[in-house]
Design goal:
The complex is a heterodimer of chains A (112) and B (116). Chain A is mainly beta and 112 residues long. Helix content of chain A is 0%, strand content 48%. Chain A has no helices and eleven strands. In chain A, strands 2, 4, 5, 6, 9, 10 and 11 form a seven-stranded mixed β-sheet that branches. The radius of gyration of chain A is 13 Å and the shape is globular. In chain A, 38% of the residues are buried. Chain B has 116 residues and is mainly β. In chain B, 0% of the residues lie in helices and 53% in strands. Chain B has no helices and eleven strands. The radius of gyration of chain B is 13 Å and the shape is globular. The N and C termini of chain B lie far apart (40 Å). The chains are: A mainly beta (112), B mainly beta (116). At the A-B interface, strand 4, strand 5, strand 9 and strand 10 of A face strand 5 and strand 10 of B.
Amino acid sequence: DIVMTQTPLSSPVTLGQPASISCRSSQSLVHSDGNTYLSWLQQRPGQPPRLLIYKISNRFSGVPDRFSGSGAGTDFTLKISRVEAEDVGVYYCIQATQFPITFGQGTRLEIK
Amino acid sequence: EVQLVESGGGLVQPGGSLRLSCAASGFTFSSYAMSWVRQAPGKGLEWVSTITGSGGSTYYADSVKGRFTVSRDNSKNTLFLQMSSLRAEDTAVYYCAKYIRCFDYWGQGTLITVSS
């Protein structure tokens, strides 16, 4: 199974400041079709998860452009350019390159 | 607008069975794979199962293989998860999600509590 490791697990951030979450996979996420199926979810308190980013860097419909994804192979990053109060929650990276689909442990974003 | 609505959750005794449903609308249901993902209280997300659009292929996490069965009724735009031999560690909110090599839409979830 591919293990997904996120750092940090907790991230206190000042409003208006940037935030960054790292995700590392135990093996390459490049699929035989050439795509890399690494996505990011946001889960606000008491809410179901919501897709932010798919295939490393593609923002999903309705996601603000302050969210961006980058990376390749086994190392990926989610960045928030300027954190807003509504960004509080837990962020997960997910690999869907192969079954079983696996999630990172989650990174809790909180406001200082 | 895509909508996914889970139902069927509740309290069940260890060793018992339960069937979850997920009613889908707002997209061509039969064209998309669907998944179940669960979240134990206070814990992270865990993939449970995925079924292709036709229902011809199914995939399971090792933790549920042999106990859970995913199925779908494309004529009724409904996804199912038949759960048997339930254990305390199956206690979680179960979400259905539309799957296109990522989980692009999620339901609100339904809580399963396995306890005597």
